[in-house]
Write a structure and sequence with these properties.
101 residues, single chain, 434 Repressor (Amino-terminal Domain), 6 helices
């Protein structure tokens, strides 16, 4: 999913890394599933750089991590983080979370 979003945005791994403050190898490993899914903070940073809705990325990450972490600092809007985390938890509670809708 990340590689598709990056391709749609017309960005190389290097360009995305520069925009997000993340290394090219880290992003490559994320795209290939070689790393644990990113925490919500990284999802929000990636989504902002890609001009994408963070929800599908966050939902997949939360499902795989079996956790939702709420970042409250480090350049992430805490209100956006809390709203997204609450949405993830609400969907999970109802058992109807679908990352592709």
């Amino acid at each position: 999913m990340l590689s598709e979003l990056r391709a749609r945005a017309g960005l190389s791994l290097r360009e995305l890394g520069r925009l997000c403050g993340l290394s090219e190898p880290y992003l490559s490993d994320l795209e290939r599933g070689r790393r644990q899914p990113p925490p919500l903070k990284v999802v929000l940073i990636l989504a902002r750089a890609l001009g994408a809705d963070p929800y599908p990325l966050a939902l997949r990450a939360a499902r795989e991590r079996k956790a939702v972490e709420i970042p409250l600092s480090d350049g992430v809007d805490p209100g956006a983080a809390v709203r997204l985390a609450l949405r993830l938890l609400e969907e999970a509670d109802h058992g109807c979370a679908d990352p592709d809708r």
